[in-house]
Amino acid sequence: MRVGELAARTGVSVRALRYYEEQNLLGAERSPSGQRHYPESAVDRVRLIQQLYAAGLSSKTIAELLPCVIDGRATPALLERLATEREHVDQRITDLLHARDRLDSVVTAATSNMLTGTSCQRGGPASVQNGPRGGSVQELAVAGGRR
């Protein structure tokens, strides 16, 4: 398949696919006219690359990981690095869960205010000033889940 079709099937821009190729994350055969042609397996590979980027891995780490995915072999150093990356992913998940809890607090307080006709500004009702987890709506929103 050509680069445009791969982009359409994966939801990734042509520019991003070219970047993946530059970073040795993705390979393509070249036609005599220089057009890129990708195998069907490139769809799954691009999706994996996207998932690993979303998990916070760098292109360098992804490049080191991909051969392990293909042939199942890894060095002890790579396994250690992957364990460290997994710990980072776990921490990001924890942070996101906290952020979601904070957003829930803001939504709850704002919904309550909307129903009662009160303001979200400082000096409003105690329920607004001190949401379910403490702190004003503004503090909760600014904190973005970090306290």
Layout of SSEs?
Elements: H1 3-10, H2 14-22, E1 29-30, E2 36-37, H3 41-54, H4 59-71, H5 76-116, H6 126-129, H7 137-143
Antiparallel strand pairs: 1-2
Helix pairs in contact: 5-7
Polypeptide structure, described:
α5 (76-116) runs antiparallel to α7. It contains 7 helices and 2 strands; from the N terminus they run ααββααααα. With 147 residues, it is mainly α. Helices cover 65% and strands 3% of the residues. It has helices at 3-10, 14-22, 41-54, 59-71, 76-116, 126-129, 137-143; strands spanning 29-30, 36-37. Strands 1-2 form a two-stranded antiparallel ribbon. Residues 123-147 have low confidence and may be disordered. The chain has 2 domains: 3-71, Orthogonal Bundle (Multidrug-efflux Transporter Regulator, Chain: A, Domain 2), CATH 1.10.1660.10; 76-143, no CATH class. Residues 120-147 are annotated as: Disordered. It holds the Pfam family MerR_1. InterPro entries: DNA-bd_dom_put_sf, MerR-type_HTH_dom, MerR_fam. This is DNA-binding transcriptional MerR regulator. Keywords: DNA-binding.
